């Protein structure tokens, strides 16, 4: 920030000297201004956008026309700094550049970087018409002879995904694919494009489209036209899609996909073809699906998954990615709490709950310090276990739960979250 302030101050002093006739204008060019504007664009200063706009305006004071780089940096700054009126400001900046170019200044001709910056800025805006306008920008690019590229479409796809509009994300993706299949190499989807599409459908709880995207990604990477293969997190997106689908068979389907991940990992372990061996996050997704299902056997199935995870963890003690974490324990406990306290297996279920709580209370500081938002998670766990008010082990459960809370508090009390 200090360098930005010094550069800003120095440039303003030079502008004033030009205005006063103390410095020849030839000592300044657009690059000086772009460096300062770009510096503010990369700054976290709360008034960065205001300062960048001020420097940009000072060019007019010495009759210097901005070039395309200056316009681009200013749009980036407005977009990054969360200006509440970014939607209108970015369009105004673009309009100024367009007018300057139409008046004969070739240095203000919009290029793909400008359009992509504008699309990115509009995509970050909360204005209700911003994303529709971003798609119109792509059409405007084509009319002006500036070809949209993969970045253009992927940026809009990501914005629609963040607005929970997977249909619009898919629509952009299909436009991109149509152009690429038509021979335009600049529209070749990359791994980021597929990742955005994958997450859009996963967040929407559509496992079929999530799986379709993953399979198309795998096929494209094997054919060599997609630059990177899907990772473990991308395979997990299918599990999460089932969890979010709220379908009656979601948990069973998620567990089936988990087994398929193991199978594929085993088949390709010597070639390291895919990084798809399930992690603790994979197991947690399936356990979460069982927790949400509230089916009579959900606790039993979830507990079985934890046992499998623990066995794998014991075989790979140095691999933290496959060790049960708090979300694993919490998910199992909540799933077990949904069991019928009056059933024939209720005593066994309560003993399992007690055993899990006792194990949890022995966990050391590193275990607890990796948990985000621990307090609300413990609150949810307490509410779930409190349903055992009518159970024979209710007091024992509450005693062990309090031990867990003390262990967590002791481990995290000196940690800033």
Automatic annotation (TrEMBL):
Q: Which residues form a coiled coil?
A: none
Could you tell me the keywords of this UniProt record?
Answer: Repeat
Keyword check for Secreted, yes or no. Answer: no
| Keyword hit for Repeat | yes
Say which domain of life the source belongs to: Eukaryota
Looking up InterPro entries in the UniProt record yields:
PPR/CCM1_RNA-binding, PPR_rpt, TPR-like_helical_dom_sf
Each PPR repeat, start to end: 111-148
UniProt name for this protein: Pentacotripeptide-repeat region of PRORP domain-containing protein
Species for this entry: Entomoneis paludosa
What lineage, starting at the top, does this entry show?
Eukaryota, Sar, Stramenopiles, Ochrophyta, Bacillariophyta
């Amino acid at each position: 920030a200090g360098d930005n302030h010094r550069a800003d101050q120095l440039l303003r002093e030079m502008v004033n000297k030009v205005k006063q006739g103390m410095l020849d204008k030839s000592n300044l060019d657009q690059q000086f201004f772009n460096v300062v504007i770009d510096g503010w664009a990369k700054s976290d200063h709360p008034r960065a956008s205001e300062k960048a706009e001020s420097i940009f305006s000072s060019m007019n004071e010495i009759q210097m026309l901005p070039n395309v780089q200056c316009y681009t940096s200013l749009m980036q700054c407005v977009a990054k700094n969360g200006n509440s009126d970014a939607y209108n400001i970015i369009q105004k900046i673009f309009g100024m550049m367009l007018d300057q170019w139409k008046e004969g200044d070739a240095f203000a001709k919009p290029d793909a970087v400008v359009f992509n910056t504008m699309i990115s800025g509009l995509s970050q805006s909360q204005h209700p018409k911003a994303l529709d306008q971003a798609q119109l920008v792509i059409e405007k690019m084509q009319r002006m002879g500036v070809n949209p590229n993969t970045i253009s479409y992927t940026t809009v796809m990501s914005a629609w995904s963040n607005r929970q509009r997977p249909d619009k994300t898919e629509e952009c993706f299909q436009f991109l694919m149509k152009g690429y299949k038509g021979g335009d190499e600049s529209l070749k989807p990359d791994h980021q494009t597929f990742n955005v599409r994958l997450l859009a459908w996963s967040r929407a709880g559509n496992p079929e489209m999530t799986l379709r995207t993953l399979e198309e990604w795998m096929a494209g990477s094997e054919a060599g036209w997609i630059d990177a293969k899907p990772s473990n997190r991308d395979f997990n997106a299918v599990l999460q899609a089932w969890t979010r689908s709220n379908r009656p068979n979601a948990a069973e389907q998620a567990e089936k996909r988990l087994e398929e991940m193991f199978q594929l990992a085993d088949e390709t372990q010597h070639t390291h073809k895919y990084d798809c061996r399930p992690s603790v996050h994979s197991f947690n997704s399936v356990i979460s699906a069982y927790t949400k299902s509230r089916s009579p056997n959900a606790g039993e199935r979830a507990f079985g998954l934890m046992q499998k995870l623990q066995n794998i963890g014991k075989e790979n003690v140095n691999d933290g990615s496959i060790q049960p974490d708090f979300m694993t324990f919490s998910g199992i406990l909540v799933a077990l709490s949904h069991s019928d306290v009056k059933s024939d297996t209720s005593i066994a279920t309560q003993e399992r709950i007690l055993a899990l709580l006792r194990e949890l209370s022995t966990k050391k500081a590193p275990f607890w310090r990796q948990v985000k938002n621990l307090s609300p998670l413990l609150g949810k766990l307490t509410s779930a276990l409190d349903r055992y008010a009518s159970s024979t082990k209710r007091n024992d459960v509450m005693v062990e739960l309090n031990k867990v809370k003390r262990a967590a508090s002791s481990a995290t009390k000196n940690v800033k979250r």
